[in-house]
Amino acid sequence: MTEFYFVRHGQTQVNLRNAFNGGSVDEPLTESGVQAAKDCGAALSNVHFVQAISSDMPRAITTSRLILKANHYPTPLSSARGLHEMDLGDWDGKTVEEVADPVALDVYFHDLVRFDQDFATDRHIEGYANTLRRAKAVIAATYAAHPSGKVLVVAHGIVFQLLLNTLIGVPFDELRKPKMLRNATISQLNTQDGVHFSKILWDMRPDEIENKKILLT
User: Fold this and answer.
1) Which end of the chain, N or C, is more open, meaning fewer C-beta atoms within 10 Å of its C-beta?
2) Beta bridge partners of 151
3) How far is the C-alpha of 201 from the C-alpha of 64, rounded, in Å?
4) Does an H or E element contain 200, and which?
């Protein structure tokens, strides 16, 4: 069995502005984001990972390194372009108010298929289907390399919203309905075949894990 631990990167200034934090914009973690990543590291310090995989974006790599610095076991860290956040093109770094594109925004949040078909290209946005395809490929390759053991995966809000919900069986056209994972939270999905995944933890901050007396080893 492979146990995947997913951690969304720590908070950045773009997150603080409540702006689109996609694949063509990156800012350092805030002080709060750094501390939250360290807290995740403390919560996961006794988990013996066979591999850690990060998005290739600096905010995710920084988060990964802060987590692994607290770990009691040496863990190889690699980066994967497939975990790069969805490129939001003309919207990246802007707030909803600054985007000022109400029809496209409504479709973006509620109709993934139509957004990809009718809106994404004109706004230089990557689209949902391609983002999900490349993220799933990372998980498939990782499971093939590690059909047992524990793996840390650090990436982004949209990537994880698409990826994790797909892994637990949410249909493509409903992937924006579940809430996005919060910054610096831990989710765990286990699989015995790389196809079927069971949800063990979901969007839990380290203090919430501690309060529930969940022991991560």
Assistant:
1) C
2) 4, 51
3) 19
4) strand 197-204
pLDDT tens, residue order, the chain (217 aa) = 999 999 999 999 999 999 999 999 999 999 999 999 999 999 999 999 999 999 999 999 999 999 999 999 999 999 999 999 999 999 999 999 999 999 999 999 999 999 999 999 999 999 999 999 999 999 999 999 999 999 999 999 999 999 999 999 999 999 999 999 999 999 999 999 999 999 999 999 999 999 998 989 8
Say how far apart CA 108 and CA 164 lie, in whole Å. 19
Say which residue the tokens 């982004």 belong to: 156
- Domains belonging to the chain, first-starting first, are 2-211 (3.40.50.1240)
Q: Are strands 186-191 and 197-204 parallel, antiparallel or unpaired?
A: antiparallel
Whole-angstrom CA distances from 62 to 41, 152, 208 are 12, 14, 23
